Each structure stands twice: as structure tokens, then as C-alpha cells.
């Protein structure tokens, strides 16, 4: 019998790459994409695979317990890859409750539904929870987050993700639910909503708008190409050990200001603008509240145990991403109209 897998948040940035990979590479799997289609969810991200016979889209909210239970009873899923979340730190600072509801309650609803349909036979079943390196808090100038690093979340977003991670592990220890988890660093690539640093700057450079850099610009992130994250998710879903956690990262730390300068230079080359032109758009603005100074991942466990490594250099991945955004103006225009304009004005008003 064909296996059926639920991917939540599949219309978002990372989720759409994961859905595409699974639908195209595994025709023997039936993929159900459950997404509420919030501001961050966009079915245009999947227009190339939406007619595939092994793909089904369902619009719904993970917070709606009755709906989730019905969905699990209807499809009798063999596996779950849970990506649906409120994912933007700045939005969590202005509206924490939405993050608590979706990220914590939504995850518990999925755990309960999986537990209920798998209670008599957990063999071959798998609940895979996608999380973030932000749960570990912030690093000083040295050191890396390992799977053993204590949790120390510092924003409403990371606190809600940390809480969901704890619940997923609690269901493994308490109910033997076959879970696996991963915590990944910052992703970049095509189809990312332009409220996050890289697509926001690409869009602003194109329109010759200022580039807002929070604080002193020396905050550091470890960037990974989204397609490499999707490959890591594939690897962990099929070969990760039940009950285990895997850190995923790009061995690729950049201070925000250095990254934005690199992006300006790539954009100038791609747009045929004089070298240095776009750097003039950079502005240092008011810092994010509780801004974590540095994230960096030790991804040696997934490399050693499962054989996963990033496949592209940052320069290659970033240039390919820039070309994707420049070649997809319609996508950018569609997502930056309407409510995005209001968000942008409120976020950058000072
Ligand atoms: P995103 O914001 O682009 O997409 C989230 C998706 O979830 C959207 O399609 C949205 O419509 C959907 N969604 C939101 N609330 C929902 C609800 N209540 N019910 C059903 N669907 C809902 O996020 P992303 O950047 O693709 O992140 C996906 C996952 O990966 C998240 O769990 C995030 O915490 C995690 N993560 C992201 C990064 C990153 O750099 N973006 C890094 C590590 C981990
Ligand atoms: O580390 C993984 C996390 O990466 C994920 O869990 C989150 O879902 C994802 O949004 C991302 O969080 P960040 O807060 O690191 O990403 P963001 O793109 O919002 O910001 C990256 C860095 O750039 C951060 O130090 C804040 C800074 N920044 C961001 C924006 C939007 C600016 O300086 N200016 C900006 O306008």
C-alpha cells in the first residue's frame, strides 16, 4: 500500500522546498500538504508540482484540534514532517500570543492526533519536528551549538519553538511516540518571504530603497542554502534514529553587515550597476529587542551519523538566489503588496 505523509507548512519558504523534493523524488509516497495560508504561505511556491497525482493540498489550521483529528482519521498518515509555524522573530516581539498558539498548541494537536491513530501500531511510523538553532539562545565570540547545548530561548519565537521541542521529546519518553527532531540555522534561497534579511535586502536594493541594519550590524548568523536544508530533512526523515536530535548548519558564519555588503556587490554585478552603488543604501537602525548576538551550529553529528553535508558554497547559493528573485518579479510583487506594505511601514517607522 502507498504510504501517506503529512507535511505541515508546505506553502511556506522551507516547506515548499521540502514538498517539492518529496513529491518529485518519491512518486510512491502520497504527500498531503497542510497549510493555513497565513501571510507567509503562498501556493504560488508550488505551482510547478500542484497537478502531480501524488500531491494533495489541504487548507487548515494546526490550532484547530477537531479539524486536525478528522484529517488524521481521514488520511491515516504513516509519517508527519511538521514545519508549520509562525517563524519571524520581529513579529513575535509585537504579537507573542499567535506564536504560542500556532507553535505550541498546534504542535500538541498534531502529537495527540498522531498518537491516537498510531496507538496500536507504531512500527514504521515517524513524527519529525522541524526546529531552529534559536532555542539554544546566544553565543559569545567563540563556540558552537551542539545537540547537548542547554536550551536558553530569548525571544517569544524561540521560546515557543523550545516549548514545542520539549513537548515532542516528552511524547517520545512518555508515550513512545516515534519522534525525531532537527534544529537548523538560518536558511536562505528562493521563495523566502521578504521580511527576512536576505530577500528584504534584495527587494530593497532592486527598488533603490534603504537597507535597515539593526544595531551595530555585527550580529552573526550561520547561513544554509534552503535546498540543503530540504536534503537534510529528507535524510533525517528516512534514516534518522528515533528519539534523536540532529543539528543542521552551513559552517558559514557571517556578520550581518558583511553579508549585506556582499549582497550589494552581487546585486550591482547582476543589475549592471556601478560597483559600490548599492552599499550606499545601507543604514544602521534601531536594534531588535533582545537581539541574539551570534548563532553557529556544530553539524558534525548529522555528517558523521547520516552522511549529510551542505552541497554549495555561500557565494554560489547566494548568487543563484539573487538570480531567482530578479527573475521572479511577479512573485515578489505579489507577496509585497497589501498587508506586507502595512507591516513594513510599522516595522521600520523609526
Ligand atoms: P514560513 O513563515 O516561511 O512558513 C510557515 C508556513 O506555515 C506558512 O506557509 C504558513 O502559512 C504556515 N502556517 C503558519 N501558521 C499555521 C497554522 N496555524 N496552521 C497551518 N499552517 C500554518 O517559515 P519557514 O521559514 O519556512 O520555516 C518553516 C519551519 O522551519 C518553522 O517551523 C521554523 O521554525 C523552522 N526553521 C526556519 C528557519 C529559517 O531560517 N527560516 C531555520 C530553522 C528552522
Ligand atoms: O536561526 C534560525 C532562524 O533564522 C529561524 O528559526 C527563523 O525562523 C528565521 O526567521 C531566522 O531568524 P533571524 O532572526 O536570524 O532571521 P532574520 O532574517 O529576521 O534576521 C537575520 C539577522 O539580520 C538578525 O541578526 C537580524 C538582522 N536584521 C533583520 C532584518 C529583517 C537586520 O539587521 N535588519 C532587518 O531588517
Could you explain how this protein is built, in words?
- It is a single chain.
- This protein has helices at 13-25, 65-75, 89-94, 96-118, 156-175, 197-206, 226-239, 256-271, 300-306, 314-327, 329-335, 339-347; strands at residues 3-8, 29-35, 55-59, 79-82, 126-132, 179-184, 186-188, 211-214, 220-225, 245-248, 253-255, 282-285.
- By secondary structure, it is of the alpha/beta class.
- It has one domain (4-192, 223-253, 291-315, 341-348): Rossmann fold (3-Layer(aba) Sandwich), CATH 3.40.50.
- Strands 3-2-1-4-5-6-10 form a seven-stranded parallel sheet, sandwiched between helices. Strands 7-9-11 form a three-stranded mixed sheet. Strands 8-12 form a two-stranded parallel sheet.
- The longest helix has 23 residues, at 96-118.
- It starts with a strand and ends with a helix.
- The relative contact order is 0.13.
- The model has no long low-confidence stretch (mean pLDDT 97).
- Nicotinamide-adenine-dinucleotide binds at residues 8-9, 11-15, 35-38, 40-41, 61-63, 83-87, 102, 106, 130, 132, 161, 184, 186-187, 193.
Key phrases:
Rossmann fold, 350 residues, binds nicotinamide-adenine-dinucleotide, alpha/beta, 3-stranded mixed sheet, binds 2'deoxy-thymidine-5'-diphospho-alpha-D-glucose, globular, 7-stranded parallel sheet, 12 helices
Order of helices and strands: EHEEHEHHEHEEHEEHEEHEHHHH
The CATH homologous superfamily:
NAD(P)-binding Rossmann-like Domain
Q: What hetero molecules are in the model?
A: nicotinamide-adenine-dinucleotide, 2'deoxy-thymidine-5'-diphospho-alpha-D-glucose
Low-confidence stretches: none
CATH architecture: 3-Layer(aba) Sandwich
Q: Quick check: average pLDDT?
A: 97
CATH topology: Rossmann fold
User: Biggest sheet, open or closed, and with what strands and sense?
Assistant: 7 strands, parallel
Range of helix content: 40-55%
Alpha carbon gyration radius? 20 Å
Q: Tell me the number of structural domains.
A: 1
Spatial shape: globular
